[in-house]
What does this fold into?
Amino acid sequence: MIGLALFYLLFPAVILIACRKYSWLDKIGAVMLSYAAGLIIGNIGIYPLLSPDIHDLLTLDSASVKKQAKDLFASGEWTAQQYAALSIYQLQDTLMSISILVALPLLLFSTDLRVLVRSAKTTLQSLLIAVVAVSSMVFVGFIIFRGIYGEQLWKVGGMLVGVYTGGTPNLASLKMMLNVEPATYILIHSYDLIVSFTYLVFLLTIGKKIFRKLLPPDHQQVAFSNAKDEPDSLVVKFEKKHLPSIAKGLGLALIIVAISAAVAFQVPPSALMITIILIITTLSLLASLKESVRTRLYTYETGMYLILIFSLIVASMVDVQTLLGITPVVFGYLALVVFGSLLLQLIFSKIFKIDSDTLMVTSVAFICSPPFVPVIAGALNNRKIIVPGITIGVIGYALGNYLGFLMAELLKIF
It folds into this structure.
């Protein structure tokens, strides 16, 4: 366990060193290399992966998961390998949560809010386009697949609107609201990991090139006061004299996360994620109003290092064996919604002259949820889109349950 934790924490440094030494690796990008490394490590049999019975257990709250896992292992119903798989998953989940939550304030400290206000209209247009695109494809998919899957497809459609405008918390909430069978929920959650991962890899590789050719570029002024002094590439040289500045930025980020968590844990579990992201974003943007915080060196790069850790862990949790014995209708429905909505967003963005980077960050905020916004921002070398992307994602969290329930009720009529 300690060895795996050290690998997650330190291997991104190896990637950055390699990118600095070999320019062709830097062209691929540190984020994409982290995903590739994670996918390989997670699927070569070094550590056990989650079995279906463990997936069933994970639908419970964390306290119940811990207790039942111990009981199952003690009674002999679980093997040591199964218990180890759960322990590794819990380590991954913990490191993933910490890395993204601490990264967010570091990435937001250098934001210039004046520029963000000027891009509000474009952000709102892109948000509305994304809502229409996801909802339309869920409806189209329902019409296509309803004769094959059965009467309960309306529930699947509602859950897909929730997860692809919000995120996993919305998926879990709609499971309860629509009384979805646990097996169906687990199936959608598992396929979502595969489809969303494939979608993100597409954007990080050829997708960003395609959209930047088909749509106008982002001509907005960079929303970071020190952008001219610091390169967007993650391959930068850290010097010892900058360590105090990095430490101060990291310390401030940890304080913000601690305050946000303390407040967020007072709300119901269903509202935990949206609450903590809202508080972190608000406090970080307030801190950015102070020039000494906004111009502090390497806060963005430090945050992006944590994003590399996050990317490495996420990719290592993808089990390619899930593709074996796949349920074609459900998998096809998810794929149609994800890639079909992306195509619709492209068409509408072309009509309304939305720039390529705004399209991509909006789509990622919806399909993959706000924590993945810095991932695409880093791959695009565009810091400006982080705050609009997180804002869109948070609004998606807020809307997800409502839109999902309304869509389910609409599909139920047909």
Notes: The CA atoms of residues 3 and 227 lie 37 Å apart. Residues 221-232 have pLDDT under 50 and may be disordered. The longest helix spans residues 182-214.
